[in-house]
Amino acid sequence: MFTGIVTDLGTVREVQPIGEGQDMRLVIGTSPAFLAEPQKAVIGASIACSGCCLTAVQLGGDWFAVDASAETLSKTTLGGFRPGSRVNLERSLRMGDELGGHLVSGHVDGVAEVLSATPENGSVRWRFRLPTGLSRFVAVKGSIAIDGVSLTVNEVDGDVFGVNIIPHTAAVTTFGTLQPGARANIEIDTLARYVARLVAADPGALSPPAAR
């Protein structure tokens, strides 16, 4: 599990085809502190890479390698990664850690299209178009993870939603280089997923109990 609070901005150093060219190994450069604190990363550790929970299969002083399956590549933006691509990074949550964002599993639900970025007072309003079927899980003032960044939804209009990005967030995440027309990994709020499942199974499940 993660919190959606990005703690380092990594850079793809190598993209290595594996699994007869269907899968991919990514070698990602990062700061030594990211791999050492609060405790040293080990082989098998879970690391969120732009919102995708991946397993470290190799480790160096300032880099790590992860494998992405063909399934992951087809359902996320990772298939478009190239040497030099920037990557939002977060180590997995430990019991007792501060929950600064919201609970994020690292399981991408879909890929959204970046529609626009418009300055709005001291921040920038970013608008995204969701893939079919996800809009019902997104609500104003609810939480959403975009490329692994925990954000608050500020508007919803059909399949389009908007969030505001402050300068600090833009400086420490890939939002600083994101452009309209690009794609972004989306993970809906886990609570929304279970509420939708509950209502689908029993439409009256959330109705108030009848008065006695």
UniProtKB/TrEMBL annotation:
Lumazine-binding repeats lie at residues 1-102, 103-199. Its EC number is 2.5.1.9. Residues 1-102, 103-199 form the Lumazine-binding domain. It comes from Siccirubricoccus soli. This is Riboflavin synthase. The lineage of its organism: Bacteria, Pseudomonadati, Pseudomonadota, Alphaproteobacteria, Acetobacterales. GO terms for molecular function: riboflavin synthase activity. It catalyses: 2 6,7-dimethyl-8-(1-D-ribityl)lumazine + H(+) = 5-amino-6-(D-ribitylamino)uracil + riboflavin. Keywords: Repeat, Riboflavin biosynthesis, Transferase. Pfam families: Lum_binding. Pathway: Cofactor biosynthesis; riboflavin biosynthesis; riboflavin from 2-hydroxy-3-oxobutyl phosphate and 5-amino-6-(D-ribitylamino)uracil: step 2/2. Gene3D superfamilies: 2.40.30.20. Catalyzes the dismutation of two molecules of 6,7-dimethyl-8-ribityllumazine, resulting in the formation of riboflavin and 5-amino-6-(D-ribitylamino)uracil.
